[in-house]
Amino acid sequence: MSSGWLARAAAAGLLCGLAGCASLQPSPVATTASPFGLYVDCRGQASASPTVILESGAFGTSSDWDFVLADLAKGGRVCAYDRGGVGASPPRAGDESVTAIALELAGLLDRMGESAPVILVGHSNGALYIETFAALWPSRVAGLVYVNGVTSNDLDDAALLRFLADERRLSDLAVDAASIGLAPLGASTMVKAEGLEGEAAARKIAALTDLRSLRVARDEDRAIVPGLTVTRELGGSPPSIPTVVIVGETRPDLFSSRAWRAAEIVPARRARRSWILDAVGATHVSPLARDRAWIVAAVDWLRSLSGGEGASGAMSTDRP
Fold it and tell me: What's the rounded Cα separation, in Å, for the pair 262 and 20?
């Protein structure tokens, strides 16, 4: 679980670089300056359904959500964004703490005119950011979707904390590799793992080959473990918010998989209205692409609770 794919990508980049693999160069990407300050990719029309906001994980950008954006746009407005200093967004004014990132998102929603509650979808480390946001501003959240999420509940398992600490060291490795010219190789591995194509692939490669962006992503990653305590002290996501947890595992029988699942499902167990989806066979990143039907189903359900329609146009009044 968590973002072990980052370790594999960084290692692949190092090995290929030392072995003399062909270098992948990013295609030129034209990005339009956002009127909201941060780079935002919004699709679909505003409707009775809450706007959906997609929050990326470690080293992630809005391009990671390309397939999900296309599917969710069929049922209403959906937006993914690049956090400050990452991808196509300008530098962040504050630090990389979880509360600073939650404040950044709150400011973005204000500038976008999103005064009604929104549905927040967080992948991996992005789950901790939306958990923090929900703890700070529960009235602004219509629903939560945690996708293979890191949350404050990881504090209760020493093994998970050790895994997250190891991941921090791998973040340093990714930046070190980039500083000696190996970033394009790791970028290629990540893009292939997610199945991105066209402009989305080019934007992802551009972000992963930009040393400035990588350093900010590394610093965000370093702030995750301290952020677990901060979010726990804020109370975590309130039980009043409908919550869906998606657990993607290729080997759910493994001890580590069981440990991650036990922590991941806590917010759903606590919520008064919830749904736990065990995406057996999904990888850490495949729910963003190949297995995105799980996210679409989760958002459709949350949209139906607010009186809106899902991507399929179907409406329901209770969990599927």
Answer: 42
CA distance 319 to 305: 9
Per-residue tokens: 198: 């066209």
Amino acid, single-letter form, for residue 18 = L
The structure tokens 């190891």 sit at 166
Residue 11's contacts (CB-CB under 8 Å, 6 or more residues apart) are none
For CA atoms 234, 238, 244, 250, give the dihedral sign. Answer: positive
Hunting for tokens 């692409």 — which residue is that?
289
Q: Count the neighbouring beta carbons within 10 Å of the beta carbon of residue 253.
A: 7
| 239 CB burial (10 A radius; 0-12, 13-18, 19+) | middle
Tokens of 245: 């947890």
Cβ atoms < 10 Å from Cβ of 151: 25
Q: How many CA atoms lie within 13 A of 16 on its CB side?
A: 21
Residues 66-113: tens digit of each pLDDT: 999 999 999 999 999 999 999 999 998 889 999 999 999 999 999 999
- Write the pLDDT tens digit of every residue in 111-142: 999 999 999 999 999 999 999 999 999 999 99
Nearest one of 216, 226, 225 to 93, comparing CA atoms: 216
Amino acid code (one letter) for 164: L
Q: Is 21's pLDDT higher than 50?
A: no
pTM: predicted TM-score of the whole model, two decimal places = 0.88
Supply 222's token pair.
């370093």
Cα(289)–Cα(66) distance, integer angstroms: 8
Q: Retrieve residue 255's tokens.
A: 């001890």
143 backbone dihedrals φ, ψ, rounded to 5°: -175, 160
Sign of the torsion angle spanned by Cα atoms 58, 84, 222, 184: positive
